[in-house]
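[Meeting: bench + compute handoff]

Bench side (C.D.) handed over the final construct sequence. Compute side (W.E.) agreed to return the predicted structure before the next meeting so the bench team could plan truncations. Sequence as handed over:
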Amino acid sequence: MEPALPSEIEIKLDLSSEALESLLGSDLLGEPHEALQQSSTYFETDDRRLSEKGFSLRVRSTGASHVQTVKASGPAKSLFVRSEWETPIEGNEPVLDHTSPLISEFGPELEVEAAFTVFIERRVWNIELNGSRLEVVVDRGDVVSGNRRSPVQEIEVELKDGDPKDLFIFIRKIDAIAPFRFGIQSKSERGLALLDRQQFMFKAERLDLERNIKASSAFREIAASCFRQFRLNEEILLQRRTSEALHQARVALRRLRSAFSLFRPLLMGDEPKRIQEELRWLAGVLGEARNLDVLLMKAKDSDLRAKLKDARNNAYDDAVEALGSARARALIIDFNEWLQCDLDRTGGSATSEDTSASEFAARAIEKMRKKLKKHGGALAETDDEHRHQVRKDAKKLRYAAEFFGSLFDDKRGTRRHRKFIAAMEELQDYLGALNDLATGPKVLAQHGLANHPARDSVVSHDDKNALIRMAQSSVDEVIDTKRFWR
């Protein structure tokens, strides 16, 4: 029997001003069914307890009406039967009484104050496509906090009823007129970003999987988390081209590819393999720029630095071009459509393998640990290619440990998990340093710098044997660390 697909899916799209104007001027949408002016004020405590615990509180004003909304996300979401509470109120100040989940979570002394306001011009269309009902909302405006502001230009396409495939058919129609990027930040997150110092990269966020979650549902949450990390860093990379954002965007793609490998017994058909290969291509383009960043960090000679900077700038141009290409846009749409529409269809996942995530995780991590033990037993007696394979084994094991940590969060499991991750991080540092020594000469040769007088300053092999010994010691430490998944 085919599993029931979700009847409501909402996709957020970010567009440039030019792209949005092209869409609004096209025949795809026509005249809106509704146009509204809205202002939404978000409230916080002075120590940010709401957002840190996974809550947001806003009061939205439309004309003379005011609606208070509390949302729970992340760890907070699992505390309640539902994750959103809407209440009509008088005025634009929040009402915190016994009916509010915030009082039950934070106590009656909770005090909040206005943190930022979102001013939006909203237009709404009701679309029928192949018998499915879609709601399309275009929001244009600003998030404002004091004298700081951030523009908002986004589309939300929600499937009200029907086949999720029709939602993606419509999204592809939008892409043909106005290229977009998938939006992953809520307006609340945009506002909080205004209050903080500007970020130059985003590391992977902690995953909080429910203890009784099925393996296929765990994969969906893990893949979505990896994609979110990628998009957050892609946005910074496109705007400011920081090496930190490029590195973390590449890490996110690597984590996503590792998730596909980890869950391979569950993922049926050819599409997951094709998506994984396309992710490999995109990560490879970013990798070219990352390799030059690594050498540039070591280079002290002014002439070598100048030549490496030129090569790096060209590599960043290639990366930005690839991210904006039709191939990359198709990949991102294909991935999201497959994740939302096809994973749970017959043939999308192997139901015989779809046990609880905890059982799946324990088997998968144990298998990866054995693989690392087998391949990492004698690093000094192997070559660079073999050590690179051990590095990949270690990365996959660490990512799996991070993905599934919340499933083993009793006191003993948490303590063991912390020690295991610390041992894995140390191992990755040593194996990464060895990989840099091996790839450095190839990168220099690729850019015509193999015979540069200062080449030895960035590819010195003096400490290679010491690194191998420390890496071997770290492998042994990981294998000896107590298993958190038991």
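W.E. noted at the follow-up: DSSP finds 15 helices and nine strands in the chain. C.D. will use this when planning the next construct.
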